[in-house]
Amino acid sequence: MGPSSVSPQSAFAELGAIRLDQVGLDEMLQRIADLANRAIPGTRDVSVTLIRGGDTRTLVFTSDLARDLDDWQYQRGFGPCLDSSPSGDSISVPDMATEKRWPEWAEYAHSREVGSSLSVGLPIQEAVVGALNVYGGQAHAFDAEAIDVAERFAAYAAVALANAHLYDTTATLAEQMREAMRSRAVIEQAKGIIMGERRCSPEEAFALLSKISQDTNRKVRDVAAALVSRAVGTGRD
Fold first, then answer.
1. By CB atoms within 10 Å of each CB, which of 104, 200, 224, 237 scores lowest?
2. Can you give the pLDDT at residue 2?
3. What is the mean pLDDT of the chain?
4. Based on the domain organization, do 96 and 150 belong to the same domain?
5. pLDDT tens digits, one per residue of 97-114
6. Could you tell me if residue 2 is inside a domain?
7. Domain check: are 119 and 187 in the same one?
8. HSE on the CB side for 118, CA within 13 Å?
9. Which domain holds residue 227?
10. Count of domains in the chain?
11. What DSSP line would sit under 50-113, residue for residue?
12. Which residue did the predictor score with more confidence, 168 or 111?
């Protein structure tokens, strides 16, 4: 290990002390990548891939080299990173010079002085997957112990991504609920205006809003908002 290296135990202790509610996702993943780069024996560079729907991107990386090796796979649609992501498997490329599964990618990696790689899948949810990608400068850089350490780092990355995805989903749902409440409020206001003007029931007032919505091909909320806005404007004259 070099002077900047850390033991896996120290790295995991540092990660365990980080509260996910106090750091952003990118910062957390960058710490994981940096520590993995220093703690996994034989590692030259590390990156984290995220695949959400049709969008594939490298979230964090320890060098432009790692990002370039990922991008090569994204642009062509194949490679160990892309294969490990949906499966959740750990895929090792022991020697780029003799790799037969992805020969073009291996040739490119070898030309960039990368001798081996390891991609550990991060199954987060059905629609969101990713991978921790570890690149070694020499062939056969990762033995069984190194793979075990990489998989433990991948577990931290998976938890961070899963929590972020859950937060994003929850935040989206909360915003949808707030929007629904705003829509309901303006519709109730519009119904009150119609009831006052026409001396009709709430049901009849909503039926009128619905008819206007259908006739004008506009959402009921938009029709109601226009009615309320017009009533407020008239009241100010």
1. 237
2. 39
3. 86
4. yes
5. 999 999 999 999 999 999
6. no
7. no
8. 30
9. 172-236
10. 2
11. EEETTEEEEEEESSHHHHHHHHHHHHHT-SHHHHHHHH--EEEE--TTT--SSHHHHHHHHHTT
12. 111
